[in-house]
Amino acid sequence: MKKQILMTMAAMALTILTGCSSTDDANKKIDGGGDPGSMGLNGGMGGGGQGQGGFAPGGSLSGGGVMDPSANENQRVYFDYDSSIVRDDARPKLMSLARMVNKGQGVVIEGHCDERGTREYNLALGQKRADAVKDFLVSQGVSAGQIQTISFGKERPLAVGHEDGSWAQNRRAEVLSR
User: Fold this and answer.
1) Which residues contact 88 (CB under 8 A, 6 or more apart)?
2) How far apart are CA 122 and CA 36, in angstroms?
3) Which terminus of the chain is less hemmed in, N or C, by CB atoms within 10 Å?
4) CA 12 to chain centre
5) In Å, what is the CA distance from 160 to each residue of 30, 34, 35?
6) Strand-strand pairing, 172-177 and 107-112
7) Considering only CA atoms, which of 70, 68, 75 is closest in space to residue 54?
8) CA-CA distance, 116 to 28, in Å (whole number)?
9) pLDDT tens for residues 47-94?
10) For the residues of 71-112, what is the DSSP string, one character each?
């Protein structure tokens, strides 16, 4: 009897784990990012461009659920490889966003990473990136109650590719209105 119960429980666990896995095809159809390495507290190599200030509320999705790379450029903050430190070139953009959020609008900050590294590591790094942006906004007078954070790790790449240019676009945080 005990053996039958153990076999049933093992089969259920296997079914649950199999149902929770994702495929590369599914990940290519959604937006987002991912980053590798250690916990991202120190700056690293790499870079990424970013647009200039302003705040465009809400996210814009193109057909098929893939994020339009230019739609939310004014709401994106890019990070160096394996880092959750807000870069100097992101500060003016975040200061502009803080002024808009201070007018009473709530925001969600999404942390993203490039495809390198494990899922668990990238979820942690994405959360640190979202928290770093939140901390900066709070330092600019935004109420912490107006801000929610979430990490998507490497599950929602903005750019699908396996080179520095794509990875740089995916190392980001996005500030979206709620």
Assistant:
1) none
2) 6
3) N
4) 32
5) 10, 11, 13
6) antiparallel
7) 75
8) 14
9) 333 333 333 334 432 333 333 444 566 799 999 999 999 999 999 999
10) TTGGGEEE--TT--SPPGGGHHHHHHHHHHHTTT--EEEEEE
Q: How far apart are CA 70 and CA 68, in angstroms?
A: 6
Intra-chain end-to-end CA distance of the chain, in Å: 53
Question: What is the CATH architecture of 26-177?
Answer: 2-Layer Sandwich (3.30)
Contacts of 123 (CB under 8 A, 6+ apart): 151, 152, 153
Residue with tokens 């004014």: 74
Quick: pLDDT tens for 95-146: 999 998 988 889 999 999 999 999 999 999 999 999 999 999 999 999 999 9
